[in-house]
Amino acid sequence: MVDRDDVLTAAQRALNADPAASMTAVAEAAGISRATLHRHVDSREALLVELGTRSLDQWEQRLDDVDVEALAASDDADRIRAALEELVLGYVDDSDVFGFALTDQVILANAALEARTQVLADREAVLFAAAQSVGVLRTDLPARWFGHAIYGLLVSGRDAVRLGDVARRDLGRLVLSSLLTGIATP
Amino acid sequence: MVDRDDVLTAAQRALNADPAASMTAVAEAAGISRATLHRHVDSREALLVELGTRSLDQWEQRLDDVDVEALAASDDADRIRAALEELVLGYVDDSDVFGFALTDQVILANAALEARTQVLADREAVLFAAAQSVGVLRTDLPARWFGHAIYGLLVSGRDAVRLGDVARRDLGRLVLSSLLTGIATP
């Protein structure tokens, strides 16, 4: 008996491999019939929104795990730097699981998910501003840019691994190092 | 009389604003009827492939403009550094025009466009390898990673401007500076 969670996980894997996968292809990947898949989710859009919700749950969990508000209030540069690195490495792991959701148009266009994304981005921006004020992040870049820069490099990383240009094992270091110190020779 | 080029440009603008825009919405944005739009392009997929082709034409033009192969063979660090900066700033301008195409699933899944993307990425990778050998780019990162890193920051930049987090005017500098020297305080 395949439960709902198994179905969603299989769907996620199928969509990571082919973001345009149809419900038929998703059902096949989950080893169930199209009818069974439809008993779990009403439509392809409902499936995507559910997977988008899961990816935001995971993002929220990462922010809770580092206790982002307390951290931002701490004025402790070492702790803030360490937590930023932990967050980015965690996001890289998550983007391996939720890869397709990063750029899926249905997910990005969903108003409820967009509103929740904004709330999480706002929480993160407080941390970035604190990181600037304790000297961890550059003050000549806008605090709201950092979240976008991280997001972009997660998209980079997902694609680089998918196309075989970068080893999965190296990805966390590549993303973190490129993000923090850039790709030019110092 | 609206010509094909006007139609494609209007379609591009409509899809940048809403990547999920239907053919009806695209026709409306172009100020023509759905029937007229269909006289210019057979289907939504054909339209997307045509716009994807235009974005690759533009990428190819940028590589030709800096004469990427001659440059890579030049061993001239200053010229290579200047050309890299010119390329990235050019890509930022192009991503303003072709924004939605960066992450459109139909475009990315098209085999012909994917093959051509690979050819252009290969040309670029030769330049990155040369930039590493003359000391412009870090040698502890794989040459094939740089193109992905640039691509990701173009996605970042497009989204940051679309969401109003960054001014369009600042974007070239933000992307280039984040790419080359990172977001951490040196």
From TrEMBL, chains A, B:
Name of this protein: AcrR family transcriptional regulator
InterPro entries in alphabetical order: Homeodomain-like_sf, HTH_TetR
Span of domain HTH tetR-type: 1-59
DNA-binding region per UniProt: 22-41
Keyword terms of this UniProt record: DNA-binding
Pfam family, one: TetR_N
Coiled coil: none
GO MF entry, a single one: DNA binding
Database matches in Gene3D superfamilies: Tetracycline Repressor, domain 2
